[in-house]
């Protein structure tokens, strides 16, 4: 199974997903429909051939993408954090039961380290980095367990002081409620900074693109997407060698 085939199955699965959620009106569903990220993923990967037999979905929310892959035949592991999940993980659990409990679910805080039980062809790490205290910990751990990765984060081109940092590997540390009145937001990295993080954490960026606003600011939401392949010596990431 390859990634492109799974993503192309999204239109038919979307109807099943909507029906499953509608049948559970007692669940406080996450208000952002993550299945709508599929067009961005299709634009990003183009004609790349990426295996998708074993998939890890980190920060799965209600599992829209988790169950897209699972229903297409992939073996899927979904990782979420109950304390910051919109419904404390109930939506993810309930949908897993609805679709036959085929997905492995685990819960934990990415900022304080996490373990993974096996190797995966592909991981999805979408919309996570700017919420984390420790961004490199996430990407280093994923590189030790996943061959390919699709990831994105919100990026900053112009700081609140008006400084253009787009081409510099820098980050802006967000005040608690400065961004969207949401205290879970921690870092806005520049596009160059995001590339540097991925490289230093054991990833080679194969392709990238931007979505949302043309110029990222604290007010304007610009997302940088990347499809990556881990470096050959990924097992040595703890040794601080060149990558």
Task: Tell me what the structure shows.
The protein is an alpha/beta fold. Helix content is 26%, strand content 23%. The protein is built from seven helices and nine strands; from the N terminus they run H-H-H-E-H-E-H-E-E-H-E-E-E-H-E-E. The chain has helices at residues 3-8, 10-22, 38-45, 64-71, 90-98, 135-143, 191-200; strands at residues 54-58, 75-80, 104-107, 120-126, 146-155, 171-173, 187-189, 203-212, 222-230. The strands form two sheets. The chain has a seven-stranded mixed beta sheet with strand order 3-2-1-4-5-9-8, with helices on both faces. The protein has a two-stranded antiparallel sheet with strand order 6-7. It is globular and about 50 Å long. The model has no long low-confidence stretch (mean pLDDT 96).
List the helices and strands and how they pair.
Layout: H1 3-8, H2 10-22, H3 38-45, E1 54-58, H4 64-71, E2 75-80, H5 90-98, E3 104-107, E4 120-126, H6 135-143, E5 146-155, E6 171-173, E7 187-189, H7 191-200, E8 203-212, E9 222-230
Parallel strand pairs: 1-2, 1-4, 2-3, 4-5
Antiparallel strand pairs: 5-9, 6-7, 8-9
Helix pairs in contact: 2-4
């Amino acid at each position: 199974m390859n990634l492109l085939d799974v993503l192309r199955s999204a239109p038919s699965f979307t109807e099943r997903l909507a029906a499953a959620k509608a049948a559970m009106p007692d669940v406080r569903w996450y208000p952002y429909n993550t299945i709508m990220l599929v067009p961005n993923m299709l634009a990003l990967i183009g004609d790349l051939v990426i295996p998708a037999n074993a998939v890890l979905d980190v920060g799965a929310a209600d599992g829209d993408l988790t169950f897209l892959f699972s229903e297409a035949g992939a073996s899927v592991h979904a990782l979420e954090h109950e304390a910051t999940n919109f419904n404390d993980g109930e939506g993810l659990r309930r949908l897993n039961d609805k679709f036959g409990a085929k997905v492995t679910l685990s819960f934990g805080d990415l900022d304080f380290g996490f373990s993974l039980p096996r190797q995966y062809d592909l991981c999805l790490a979408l919309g996570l980095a700017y919420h984390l205290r420790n961004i490199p910990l996430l990407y280093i751990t994923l590189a030790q367990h996943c061959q390919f990765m699709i990831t994105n984060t919100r990026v900053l081109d112009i700081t609140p002081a008006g400084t253009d940092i787009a081409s510099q590997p820098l980050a802006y540390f967000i005040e608690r409620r400065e961004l969207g009145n949401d205290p879970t937001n921690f870092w806005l990295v520049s596009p160059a900074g995001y590339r540097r993080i991925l490289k230093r954490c054991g990833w080679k960026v194969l392709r990238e693109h931007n979505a949302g606003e043309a110029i990222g600011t604290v007010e304007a939401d610009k997302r940088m997407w990347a499809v990556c392949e881990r470096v050959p010596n990924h097992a040595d990431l703890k040794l601080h060698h060149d990558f």
